Structure formats: C-alpha cells, structure tokens
Fold:
Amino acid sequence: MRYTIYAISGAAWLCLFYYGLPYYRLGLAARLHSPAHSLLRPTGQIGLLYGYIGTVFVLMLFLYSIRKRVRVLAGLGSLGRWLNVHTFCGVAGPAMITLHSSLKVTGAIAIGYWAMIGVMLSGFVGYYLLRQVGGALAEADDEAESLARELERLDQELVERFGFTPADLDTLRRRSGADRAAQMGALHSLFYLMGQDLLALLDALGLIPRHAALRRLTRLEARRVRGMMRRHMLMERRRAFLRQTGALFHYWHAIHRPFTIVLFLMVAIHIGIAVWLGYALPRY
Structure:
C-alpha cells in the first residue's frame, strides 16, 4: 500500500511538472509574455496552490517528532507508520515547493530552499541508518544476543532445508560486509555498507552471477532463499552496527538539525513577508 501511494504521488507530480515544463524552460523575461504566467508563477493561481500544499507537507514533518515525544499519543498508531508519513512528507513537501518556485530560486529565499533540500537528503541518510540498525539506538547486549540467536536459527534452516555448506555461510557473511564494517569507523562503515547495498541491488537485478548454492534449487525455492539471505545480511549488519549507532546518529543530527532550523526559520520569514506584502492570495 505504501509503495502504491508513492508511485501514484510520483506519477501525479511528474504530470504536473510536464504540464508546466514549457513555462519552466523560459527565461524570466520571456515568462512575462507566456499565457501560463498568471497561473504558474509563484504568486499565480496554481503556483500559490503548490506553495500551500508544499507548506502543509513541510509543517507535517513536526508530527513524527511530536508523536515520538508525547506519550499521550502512543495509541495513535505505531512509530513505524508515523515514520512512513514523515518520509512521505519529507519528499512531497520539497517536490511541491519546487513547483511553487517555478524552478527559479534566487535571492534570500534560495537559502531556505537549499536548506529544505538538505533536510530531505539528510533525511534519506537517517532513514537508511534506521533500516540498518533497527531500533538499536544505544549499546544493548540483549539486542546483540537476540540477533545472534536469530542468526543461528537462520543458519540452521539454510543448512538443513536448502543444503548450504559452511563455506556458503562464510561467503554470505562476507557479502554482508558486516565483518569489515565492525572494524571501521562510523562514517567509513556507513559508506562501505551503502556500497554493499548497491551490489545487492545489482544482484537482485540479475547483473551479478547467481550464488552457487542457489543453482541447486528450483526457482521458487531460490526466491525464498534469496529473501532469507537478504534478511541474514541485514541482521549481520545490525549486529556490526550496534556499538556504532550512537556515533552515527550523532553525526547525522549534527547535519540534519541545522538544516531543519534554517528551513523552518526561512519558511516563517517567507510566509510573513508574503502576507505583509499581499502575495499570499492569487494575483489576477
């Protein structure tokens, strides 16, 4: 369902972008003579609507932080669902603000715009970190033990049901990158594992030769085992990252938080000036 919403929203945005593309490609002087100018300029009827929608999405980014900190709201859905909404708004907001700007960002407002892009890009990194380390946000021996037990059960199933050998399991661990990541610094290991994920994507697309153990299985069995292998590698990475998570999120907050502060400060200034000068309503 989530990916369906992403796909529909992305297709809708592309249609809006394509509709305005002839106007967006014009220079500032030529736009004054375009029939679409009264609609698509930032203060136009459609341009302002883009701005309103984008601003609502940007302000909705606060909801995840509020849900995470206010215990009274614990019954209003899991944090995972709120994070999905947060992620969607973090992409949809900049996308709509980009259309609102009519792809011409100049002057002081450019500071706010690029701060917004910085928030979005650093948000992708934060989401990636959460997927790598799960809910382990501090050193947690019980979490490490739980992962170790689950890995043992997974190893046993791969050996007993699908004929994996100890050499196959060793290869799987090497491909996870976890052993090397555990010996690296926090940022170094992050970039290394991102490279490993790129290789995993190429593998999923069939651009890397099949693992030898999979050639012995039927297509249906191979598909299930590939899913188990991906889960195995993710758990190995989580275990390797467990003791580095605090440092990783420290670096991430050091980048994400200043961008966020600048973004909301510039949003407040931009809206205030627009209301003061009378640009907050469509100009015909």
About this structure: DSSP finds 13 helices and no strands in the chain. The two ends are 40 Å apart (CA to CA). The CA atoms of residues 155 and 169 lie 7 Å apart.
